[in-house]
Amino acid sequence: MPAARTVLITGGAGGIGRAIAAAFTALGDDVVLTDIAGAQEAAAELGTRWVELDITDEDSITGALEAVGPVDVLVNNAGLLTVHGRLLELAGADMLRILNTNVHGTFLMTQLVARGMVERGTGGAVVNLSSIGGRQPTPGMGGYESSKAAVDALTRWAAIELAEHGIRVNAVAPGPVLTPMLAMGLPEGSPARQAWLERIPLRQLAPVAQVAAAVVFLAGESAAHITGTSLPVDGGQLLV
User: Fold this and answer.
1) Could you read off the pLDDT tens digit of each residue along the chain, which spans 240 residues?
2) How large is the C-alpha radius of gyration of the chain?
3) Among 21, 94, 170, 182, which residue's beta carbon has the most beta carbons within 10 A?
4) Of the listed 144, 155, 170, 214, which one is catalytic?
5) 53 located within any domain
6) What is the spatial distance between Cα 36 and Cα 175, in angstroms, rounded to a whole number?
7) According to DSSP H, which parts of 71-207 are helical?
8) Is residue 144 among the annotated active site residues?
9) Per the similarity annotation, which family is this (predicted)?
10) Considering the domain boundaries, does residue 238 fall inside one?
11) Whole domain around residue 164: which residue ranges?
12) What is the pTM of this model?
């Protein structure tokens, strides 16, 4: 039986974060949920630890990591995905908000957690949540998608520099994920849901459990020789 790992998951209060937490918890890992709000409630439901953390604030991250202790696996799940707009209309301030959260926040978390891994000399794993939108544009979502293309680049950057320390860095890139929030916005049978399904060869949105399974795989020993990749979980959407 492998030793339990300490797994830190950002954005843990949301649907994808909770699914990832549940998957690691089922393996017997020591899971720590973080978020700017709601982490305590989510942790109580799942029976995990929690800490409040703002990924855009370096002092917040430092304080949270001191409280958590050594981290073996970092899952950069937190991100801003509700701010959208077409190129000619998206406010510059909104674009900066997207980049500050999705790119700078992911950078800060990776940097500060990896420093601890390097100091301890124990290696580790980082899994970032990206999106197939970083490779396949959708009108009106370019700000978010540009940030996720940057996350893919950050994944490769971190992977090449941290490999010598035994730290692997990968990403999971879902298509639309069937979270409770998305299900409310795209009800089953609605024209909007059908429009998305028609873009996906397997004709289904990604179940949260499938995204979680990909994260667990990339963080685990079965993926010990994989680093710097961004794994699509998209039902084949990138094929069309």
Assistant:
1) 678 999 999 999 999 999 999 999 999 999 999 999 999 999 999 999 999 999 999 999 999 999 999 999 999 999 998 899 999 999 999 999 999 999 999 999 999 999 999 999 999 999 999 999 999 999 999 999 999 999 999 999 999 999 999 999 999 999 999 888 788 788 888 998 998 899 999 999 999 999 999 999 999 999 999 999 999 999 999 999
2) 17
3) 21
4) 144
5) yes
6) 25
7) 92-99, 105-120, 142-162, 180-185, 191-197
8) yes
9) Belongs to the short-chain dehydrogenases/reductases (SDR) family.
10) no
11) 6-230
12) 0.96
Task: Examine residue 95 and state whether it is found in any structural domain, yes or no.
Answer: yes
Structural contact between residues 34 and 10, judged by C-beta atoms closer than 8 angstroms? yes
| 112: in domain | yes
Which residue reads 């918890």 in tokens?
25
Residue type, 60: S
> What is the rounded distance in angstroms from the CA atom of residue 200 to the CA atom of residue 175?
9
Choose among 155, 102, 151: nearest CA to 125.
Answer: 155
Number of structural domains the chain divides into: 1
CATH number of the domain to which 154 belongs = 3.40.50.720
CA distance 206 to 209: 8
